[in-house]
């Protein structure tokens, strides 16, 4: 016979009346700790994370500058007294750089600025950030571009530093609890601006670059993240590299008068046409490049890289080493009047830059473009000998960079901050604006066009065919 009152499966109430034991009430100390943790987390996300990211961008910019200089100096050491070695070293390292880029580090090729523009403006593509940013691309951009410097290629470090800065800041988005396109865009802009600021030691140009070149409009709010990133990247650069002028102080008369009008017009025309020609050569390579080269570029990239590496080496030997590297030394020598370069330096450097960029390895355009501009100043000085050479160089660097990028404010502010050329503000602004207009008659803005050509829709097309 079963028990009419079987034991209950639940333990009896510990207290009379069936009341359950409740948690002890929060003490004032517990509440203070909770508020402190919440506020600390909010402050970390609002200040600590972007500040830390900007400091890291500044550190990477300084270290990358030193490493690229060391790599190029090592190349010069290798070929000192044995120039013929360039015909072995440059092609071999060009092939290696192309192989690594295509095999493991796709997305790191070229300047890096088109990648940032694509991430900001391309049609929705879920694969874009993974293809163009991340730790893989950061490592590839650093390592493979240094191989390019080691091989004497005509590349700059400023565009890659912009790409690195944007990629580093974009990685911090993973630590935010709420992610989205707005946060991603803010971090990309901030990192890119901090990268340019750290590369050139030009904080104002970094902010303007983020608005004019990347955002492409003045309605985009330059928020605190961008300003903060530029400031902290600049502070890191100041702490590690000192307060330096990229090209040194230019010494020019304070009052040029009407004598500068004709040189400004001539420079704007020369630089505008030269910059437009450079853009067209890069953007229309499939039109002018021989069919055999186009076939090798698509199906035999290492053979293609070998041919371009040999051509870069040949130009360097022909110019007695003046076309190798970024061109910083030659531009600074011209600006300071230390030593002349060959009269055909500008077109030789122009060709070397085209070859290096079309090879398909990581490397920027800023420094080589400034060097081409400095070389063009020699031609202008032959016509207007009464105008001081440093003034003409500053104007030509501004005009040529503006014609290539079609970002006149960024271009003139970069050169202004690099040379402390406050007395040249109005002439540099005029040259930048007119050269941009002339270039725009023939070609679209280079970085934006490269972004559309190389990255818009590529991931979606690959996904459809995969």
General description of the model:
There is one protein chain. With 466 residues, this protein is mainly α. The chain folds into two domains: 46-241, Orthogonal Bundle (Clc chloride channel); 257-454, Clc chloride channel, CATH 1.10.3080. The protein has 21 helices and no strands. It has helices at 28-79, 86-103, 113-121, 128-132, 135-150, 158-171, 181-200, 203-215, 224-241, 261-283, 285-288, 291-299, 301-318, 328-336, 345-358, 366-383, 389-405, 408-419, 425-440, 446-454, 458-465. α14 packs antiparallel against α17 (389-405), α16 crosses α17 (389-405) and α17 (389-405) runs antiparallel to α18. The relative contact order is 0.14.
Question: Strands, helices and their partners?
Answer:
Layout: H1 28-79, H2 86-103, H3 113-121, H4 128-132, H5 135-150, H6 158-171, H7 181-200, H8 203-215, H9 224-241, H10 261-283, H11 285-288, H12 291-299, H13 301-318, H14 328-336, H15 345-358, H16 366-383, H17 389-405, H18 408-419, H19 425-440, H20 446-454, H21 458-465
List keywords for this structure.
Clc chloride channel, globular, 21 helices, 2 domains, mainly alpha, disordered C terminus, 466 residues, single chain, 69% helix
